[in-house]
Amino acid sequence: MASTNQELARIFSEMAAALELTGANPFRAVSNNRVARELRDLTEDVGALVAEDPETAVARLTALPGIGKGSAQKIVEYVQTGGIDEHRKLMAKVPRGLFEVLEIPGIGPKAAKAMWEQLGIESVADLKARLDDPALAALPRMGKKTVENIRRAILFSEKTAARVPLGKALPLAIALRDELAALPGVRRLEYAGSLRRGCETIGDLDFVAACDDPEGVRRRFTEHPSVTQVLAHGDTKCSVRLESEGVAIQADLRLVPEAVYGAALLYFTGSKEHNVRLRERAIKRGLRLNEYGLFRGSEERPQEQGKKPLAAATEEEIYAALDLPWIPPELREDRGELDRPPPRLIEVGDVKAELHAHTTASDGRMSIAELAACARERGFHTVAVTDHSPSQVIANGLSPERLLDHLAAVRAANDEVRDVTILAGSEVDVLPDGRLDYDDELLRRLDLVVASPHAALRQSPAEATARLLKAIAHPRVHVIGHPTGRIVGRREGLAPDMAALFAAAAEHDVALEVNANWLRLDLRDVHVRGALDHGCKIAIDTDAHRPEHFDLLIYGVLTARRGGLEAASCINAWPAEKLHAWLAAKRDA
Ligand SMILES: [Zn+2]
Ligand SMILES: [Zn+2]
Predict the structure, then answer these.
(1) pLDDT exceeding 70 applies to what percent of the chain?
(2) Are the beta carbons of 481 and 510 closer than 8 angstroms?
(3) What predicted TM-score, i.e. pTM, was given to this entire model?
(4) Which ligand is in closest contact with the Cα of 457?
(5) 105, 492 contact by CB (below 8 A)
(6) How many Å lie between the centroid of ligand 2 and the Cα of residue 258?
(7) What is the pLDDT of residues 224-279, one digit of tens each?
(8) In the chain, what are the domains?
(9) DSSP secondary structure string for all residues of 512-540
(10) Which of 60, 61, 108, 350 is deepest in the core (most CB within 10 A)?
(11) Bond from prior residue into 367 cis (ω within 30 degrees of 0)
């Protein structure tokens, strides 16, 4: 998707928020939000559309359900002039910091407007300073409990704010890596750090390179179009600040001789804790490990004495010299990885089924046939249609009557296709008390039941545990979808007794999902490890709402790898017969 669309979507969202904050007719805010949504979904680039012919562009845009003539003209105005006059005027009326206040979960435009008008709060910092002021709790629709939730949300976002989500950092790093690696004379080049370990958020990007023409690589790196600031430009290290697609992150490039590339890659991949364990192991063997290699003896900086390392060119030979097999980066966290042989971790190519996906019947953008086509393109043998249940009103959840029609449509579509099985399932809400959102009679008709919590995500741990245990014990449930409902860096979600859930899931033969959307990654890595220790099955699903969501799989796989998942314990990696038999056994029980 082109970034002009995304930039315009952001502008229309801002106008909507500014309209609400200034108390304009609420209908105008709603229509601006609708335009923003259409722009986000649009696959054509409006920039190119307008450049080609503004009149045709207006006709094309107004043909979309959410865009009127006035909005279409503003889109043209933006492409032709680089801005929208109304947007500038609105932004001048509202303090910039109020938009950040609106980002805090639980604060809507009405609340933000009241804080601004009645208490002069114009930023998150202002709000933080007033959290203990009774006047804040006394505002309409506020109250003590809401203030406490706001306090928690602010603290939570402060903890994670500086880090970039995996799903934003990885595409950026891959593009940059591939561009640099293609330069003449580059022998080895890889991203390292927490990104190579597949962590859910990334502090900064680290690249390690070995090349014949360091100056060429340095220049391309520091003069890259996404660079906004060069922080350091040295012979062996360059640091820049990158901004691209709404991500701002520091990136470091380290240039090393090819003979010590493995030692540098190992060192800069980390984690710090893993490296400490390796160095201790080296010392016990009378060796010394640093970013220049593994050396005999105990001198501080053996490379400066002209000593030749025992091993340095590859990670494999360094591990081998420490009597270790090569350890996949995702496991390098000092969680016992040196004390047991590494598992054969699951890979994207092992996954052969998508078991959680939405169609236009609820809040997805794909027809059943389009969904099946996406699955076929990826070489999957199975895809499950799992639209929402009635409680998900905003997601257009299916009433029992609509579900029955939908099941018939899925079965008809399945009869039409040859090389992929389309399962008729549902993502059924786990209600706050643990009951499911459809009755048992209806659940019995489904090939697959993914039971997920969506509402009441601030329940106490005890309530959350009871709720999820009840869902796990339900005889028709196959998978618990995004079990905690957390959103990375934004919402903590449920905090149930995970060990109790793992034990129950193993007992009732229910798989626990790693939702691959990088906003969720739920289960998280340590939960995957805990679940496997209890003998649970794991599902990795993209929760696809659009075709491109199938590409999110990598994030779920990386998270699962961090938890030590092998293909055998992942139901999506099973052969079709095994998966279908497992699903049917529950339905027929
Ligand atoms: Zn869901
Ligand atoms: Zn879903």
Answers:
(1) 99
(2) no
(3) 0.79
(4) 1
(5) no
(6) 46
(7) 999 988 888 889 999 998 988 778 899 999 999 999 999 999 999 999 999 999 99
(8) 3-160 (1.10.150.110), 164-255 (3.30.460.10), 261-329 (3.30.210.10), 348-588 (3.20.20.140)
(9) EEEE-STTT-BS-HHHHHHHHHTT--EEE
(10) 61
(11) no
